[in-house]
Amino acid sequence: MSWEDFYRRRDTIAAVLHAAERSPDGSLPFTEVGAGQVFRDERELLLAMHYHWMQVMTGQLRAELGRPDDGDRPAGEDGYDPADGVARAWRRAAEEHAALRAVLDANLERYPDVGTAALQREQRVLAVTAGLAEPDEAPAEAARVGAAFLALTRHGATHGAARSERSKGQVLRMFARSA
Q1: Is the pLDDT confidence value at 172 over 60?
Q2: Position 101 in a domain
């Protein structure tokens, strides 16, 4: 891919997201923005948009969990729980890039050949980063744990779930192990 292609793809994704901001249903305005001149089809566009989401999300994860002053602090020290940090980072990314998240949520199921693999990658990253799965764990198992984590993260973001004395990360780890 040339730099010109890169910029055309980036600008097309930005135009899609700009159009999507005006559409509350998360529809994919492929033809409206002329995306067919840059992407073969909606599947290719969705795959590029999910790649963009992964960049946004992992950037938030690095910002939340990779602070230079953290050193090698083990999970749980000083009340810090990586699962809580991962949930905060995901919600922050989803809030700051609401149009991107809405388009992905509305369209990845329409194209299971793109959506399933993309969503499972996201779920595995979340599970491993939250400390709920190991990097060498079977991909399907890590994705399953990540799916549960993501569902709880989304639920907490939209319903303001009450917190008990136990951290959400501790509850998630018990849930993941019991499944």
Answers
A1: no
A2: yes
Q: What is the spatial distance between Cα 85 and Cα 77, in angstroms, rounded to a whole number?
A: 13
Note the pLDDT tens digit of each residue in 133-142: 999 999 999 9
Q: Which tokens belong to 74?
A: 């083990």
Boundaries of domain holding 137:
53-178
Q: What is the dihedral of CA 147, 120, 13, 61, to 10 degrees?
A: 60
Q: What is the pLDDT of residues 50-88, one digit of tens each?
A: 999 999 999 999 999 876 555 444 455 566 789 999 999
Give the phi and the psi of residue 96 in degrees, each rounded to 5: -70, -20
Q: State the Rg of the chain over Cα.
A: 18
Q: Which residues of 7-43 are buried (b: 16+ CB within 10 A; e: fewer)?
A: eebeebbebbbebbeeeeebebbbeebebeebbeebe
Count H helices and E strands in the chain, helices first. 7, 0
10 found inside a domain: no
Q: Which two tokens stand for residue 18?
A: 């700009």
Q: Global pTM?
A: 0.81
State the DSSP code for 72.
T
| Number of separate domains in the chain | 1
